[in-house]
Amino acid sequence: MNNFSSISVKLPNNPYEIHIGQGALNNFKTFIPPEYKSHRQFFICDSHTEIYARKIAGDSPLFVVHPGEAAKSFTVYQSVMSFLLDHKINRNSLVIAVGGGVVGDLAGFAAASALRGVPYIQIPTSLLAMVDSSVGGKTGINAPQGKNLIGAFHQPCAVICDIDVLRTLPEREMKAGYAEILKYGLLGDAEFFEWLDENAASILTLDPKITSYAIQRSCEMKAEIVITDEKETLGQRALLNLGHTFAHAFEAVMKYDGRLLHGEAVAVGMICAMELSAKLGLMNPQNIERVVQHMGRLGLKKSISDIGLGQSITADNLLEIMRGDKKASSGQIRFILMKDIGKAYMDNEVNEDDVIALLSNMMG
């Protein structure tokens, strides 16, 4: 087991381990917590990750959804619940999500709501899911009114990250996942950003040692924040949303149809957050240029023009979507701003006129 690293998420009521390494799926049973080893297993995956799920499922019930954000819908959720109930799920059952963030969110919400909550394991198969959605217990589905508006906080009992499965991931997906890794350096660890500036290319080519460390450090940072603010009531967990207020608006405009990946939206959203910070006199524009150059070297999307929102979309349209975001408080939009690389904070009092002016300028 020397090829694996483990991180403890030491939540008072729901502690669990994140396991990272090459060939982790080959050791799947080893990573199931002892108290759940005898539980009957139910697997949920999509058609892209079915090959991995079947590898470990054996004769266990398995449900396959279509890939993509459309799977996080009422209709698919109902189908998953019917599958679990038809197969007589009970409290001695274990739901296992094998897939990217969509599968993890959907399966996690099904586990949270079946019988008012059964345990589940996350086996993320995308870089983005490994460093973001699989850790922290946020589960849910989308509504016509917006993304992730229906869900529950339901912590997994283990997270298993197998570096090897990333080798089948398209380059675009890897870059989208890397944006979330970059987020951790920008929001709270300037040294990690410096390390990424030197090693990011090796992550995208899946150097095992470099990639494992990048995932490990990202998960450590997310775990540290989640432990202090599990249900996002104290403001600390909100830091994880750096760039997301803008990103969710971009995704809503693009209707979650695959033209814009979540990580791509976040990359551009982080630049927007930094530009807003500079506009408010908080951040040195030279540091923004460093990040823009970093993204450019890796081929990441870094400006609103890169994501093709369409000529009919205005800054006012985007602001209206932001007002409806679940992270807004009494209609006041909550932004994560930056004072420097590695120093982010939450601000509930940003003047909307400044946001309109910034977006209008960035949209040309």
Low-confidence stretches: none
Q: Work out the radius of gyration.
A: 20 Å
Number of strand segments = 11
The SSE string, one letter per element, is EEEHEHEHEHEEEHHHHHHHEEH
Q: Strands across the major sheet, in which order? A: 1-2-9-6-5-3-4
Describe the structure.
This protein has 364 residues and is α/β, with parallel strands linked by helices. The chain folds into two domains: 4-168, 3-Layer(aba) Sandwich (Rossmann fold), CATH 3.40.50; 171-362, Dehydroquinate synthase-like - alpha domain (Dehydroquinate synthase-like, alpha domain, Up-down Bundle). It has helices at 50-57, 74-86, 101-113, 127-133, 171-188, 190-204, 208-228, 244-253, 262-279, 285-298, 315-323, 352-362; strands at 4-9, 16-21, 40-46, 62-65, 93-99, 120-124, 138-143, 146-153, 158-162, 335-340, 343-347. The chain has a seven-stranded mixed β-sheet, with helices on both faces. Strands 7-8 form a two-stranded antiparallel sheet. Strands 10-11 form a two-stranded antiparallel ribbon. The longest helix has 21 residues, at 208-228. The model has no long low-confidence stretch (mean pLDDT 94).
Topology:
Elements: E1 4-9, E2 16-21, E3 40-46, H1 50-57, E4 62-65, H2 74-86, E5 93-99, H3 101-113, E6 120-124, H4 127-133, E7 138-143, E8 146-153, E9 158-162, H5 171-188, H6 190-204, H7 208-228, H8 244-253, H9 262-279, H10 285-298, H11 315-323, E10 335-340, E11 343-347, H12 352-362
